[in-house]
Amino acid sequence: VILRLNISGPASEVPEDLRQLWVDLLEPYVDRASYARASFESLARRYLEEGRSCHGIDYLEHLVFSICDLTREPTSAPDDPLATTLAGFFRYTVLAPGVTDSRRHSARLAGNWLDGLGIAPEVVDEVRRLVLLPDTYEAAPDDLDSAVTIDADLVVYGSDYESYRRWLEGLRREHDRLGRPDFEARRIRFVKSLTRREHIYHTASCRERFEAMARRNLEAELRLLGAAGTEGAPALAEPPPAEDRSGGRVHRGLGVGVPADRGVEQEGRRDRVDAEELSDGQHHLLAPPSGRPGVTAASSGRQRHRSPSDPRHLVGIVAAALVALFAIYAAVQLLRPVPSPKVSLVLGSQLRVPGNANLPWPTLGEAQVDVEGVGAFAPVGPPGPVPVASLTKMMTALVVMKDRPLTGESAGPSITVSSADEAVYRADVASQQSVVRVVAGERISERQALEALLVGSGNNIAQLLADWDAGDASAFVQKMNASAKSLGLSHTRYVDPSGAQDGNVSTLQTKSAWPRRRSRTRCSHRSRRNPTRSCRLPALSTISTRTWGSTGSTE
Amino acid sequence: VKTGSSTAAGGCFVFFAHGAAAGREVSVVGAVLGQRGSVPVQIALDEGSSLVRATFASLGPQLVAQAGLPLGQLVTKWGATTSLAVSRNLDVLGAPGMTARSRFVPDPSGVDSGVARGTPVGQLVVYLGTQRVSEDLVASRNLAGPSLLWRLTNF
Fold this sequence. Notes:
Order of helices and strands of chain B: EEEHEEEEEEEH
Distance between the termini of chain A: 95 Å
Strand order of the largest sheet of chain B: 5-6-10-9-8
Number of helices of chain A: 21
Strand order of the largest sheet of chain A: 3-4
Number of helices of chain B: 2
Number of strands of chain B: 10
Helix content of chain B: 10-25%
Strand content of chain A: 5-15%
Shape of chain B: elongated
Oligomer: heterodimer
Largest interface: A-B, 77 and 89 residues
Structural class of chain A: mainly alpha
Radius of gyration of chain B: 24 Å
């Protein structure tokens, strides 16, 4: 079921004579013949669209050649044969389901194309007007162009009954979107509007050839639609007397047997050549006068409608549902992105630069070098926390500068040396520790104190700064440990501000994080660019950096 | 940056050096701990400065991906495969022995409709320190897209 429904009818070929006509018509007017050919292919593509069971390429051929035939007869010659013929080409160019104003789209398309091809504006305007002719299929008495266009469009009504029936079947299928009641109501109204006229056709040649046949066909159709005479009359089984006038020219022009959709199933369905064969349409239809088309229709054609419980109806619904499901499935499958390919890197995610830098690592102890922004060499030596002695003072300075930032060259706040600070100094001297001399009552700046801490490595200065910053050493040590933790130095522990005790430990993995943090401070900058060998404190005129040497002391 | 020494700690030295390597300004930071000897701090200072000098000397452009050599393999779910290679050598500033990280970043346009030989399917991105260098990884041979049947029958 799915496959059958998906396959469109046999593909119609583009009639060569139609192509040739288009090129012949346009060649004198356009700059380049190739444009004319290319534009015809685009046009033909539209008429080859699926779903055009009535107004396909065959109908185009029929319509255009009907116009051509009429223009060549003295009794029906239009004012502007070129515009009239071109209008035939464009009249059903746009026929999208659900597009209510397809005429307007067709007219706009005609205008754009013909303008682009270099056709004179008057001709283009006339083509547009003819394409836009309303669906009443009536022309003013002096409007010859419209008369020819409309008559050519109505030639189909004057064809033999069988051709007409097939054409109607195509029309119904083309307008499947309208509900059947709606279609029939519109169709009845349109057919009646034609039969009520004095003449269906405008031109003498058409009246002569088609008027009688058209009336018979239309009346038969009305009977089928249950809208004329006694309902269910024998009309059903009885086509009007057919006159085969198709002669040798089957699909061309006025001679015509009317083209029907080639995909239409013709065998085995004759018994249902009744109202069921007639469905909806925007063209060759008229909207009912009341705003509710479905209601009137439902009360006129109902008996022959399939009831919802009709098995054929259910099969149709199931088939349509299957088609819809398959279409959705296919669309989802084809539209969703394909799964991403898997890519494995042969070289692995860890990419070791080949070779060995052969750095002169110390044979004892531990060492690590990190090239900032480039990479680190693996640390050398046993892992685990080790005592770091006066390296502790880096954290002391960091905590002080975090609490009392020094900006630029500023000296920072003053610190008054207390007698307790002087006592610590004397005690540290006595225990041969690394010291920087201070005297009670003197005032030193924060900057001086930090230089004495980092350059002089004074243990007594570490104590002095801890007291100044946190009130006492143990509160300050808590700050140091908190700071280490916030830097991610998880194996680092401090027990005093100076590093004098062996309980101040750290590891290499974390050590290199320090100077980077500190490089922003003025202190380390100065020592890097312009190495400070000494600094001045008021009490002690100069402290030398070269105070190491005595083993056992802490620097 | 700071020295330190005690009987327990030995000689310690934390250092920071700034200089040029391979036309770039780089900073070297490091530490030497636990140096022993008659003057432990001096030994730490000496070891530290020779480490800094050797580090600068070892720095230079390092080849991490060679053009044309297969660096990766691309396998699609529908069975098409190709090896991948960079079309140009990929260098990164570093020293021998350092370890970079590499990653494949697929091209967002994907390979829905197949890929011709030499077309980039993504990038090889190499990180070393804060460096990030990348080069297109191109297919070494033509890669077919999935067939219609495959697309309809695979979830």
